[in-house]
Specification:
single chain, 72 residues, mainly alpha
Length: 72
């Protein structure tokens, strides 16, 4: 990916802010008993609040807003 214009850079900066907000909110929400579906719903709400769209959904038709894996 190349950034060729100031507008493209501003777009990337906006996207970075949404990613930061999403990761911070998800980190606060992770706890025993919280499901990956609940985390996905939270991420979807944050995306919607920022006018953002999910890359996995748009690009791959993934059935969720985020890709979550659980480590034990």
């Amino acid at each position: 990916m190349s950034v060729d214009t100031p507008e493209q850079m501003k777009g990337l900066e906006r996207a970075g802010r949404v990613v930061t907000a999403t990761l911070r909110s998800l980190r606060r929400a992770v706890a025993p008993g919280v499901t990956t579906g609940e985390l996905d719903a939270l991420a979807g709400e944050i995306f919607a609040a920022h006018g953002a769209r999910s890359g996995p959904i748009l690009t791959y038709g993934y059935p969720a807003s985020i890709c979550v894996s659980v480590e034990r």
